[in-house]
Specification:
Layout (H helix, E strand, L loop, with lengths): L1 H24 L2 H30 L1
Helix pairs in contact: 1-2
């Protein structure tokens, strides 16, 4: 479980780095990569924590 939490954290940092590159360069590809990374990271995080919550309920 600790591995998945670190992976989610690192992916969020990666998305933040993409947004910083976008702010620095103005290139739309960094913004697009940041949004895609952020979207899939949040979907994976919600799924992971939903499984944890369901395990506690059952």
């Amino acid at each position: 479980m600790l591995l998945f939490r670190w992976l989610i954290f690192l992916l969020l940092i990666g998305a933040a780095v993409c947004f910083v590159f976008y702010l620095g360069t103005g290139q739309m590809r960094y913004r697009r990569w940041g949004l895609i990374t952020l979207k899939w990271t949040l979907i994976a995080a919600f799924g992971f924590f939903a499984v944890l919550i369901l395990q506690r309920i059952v």
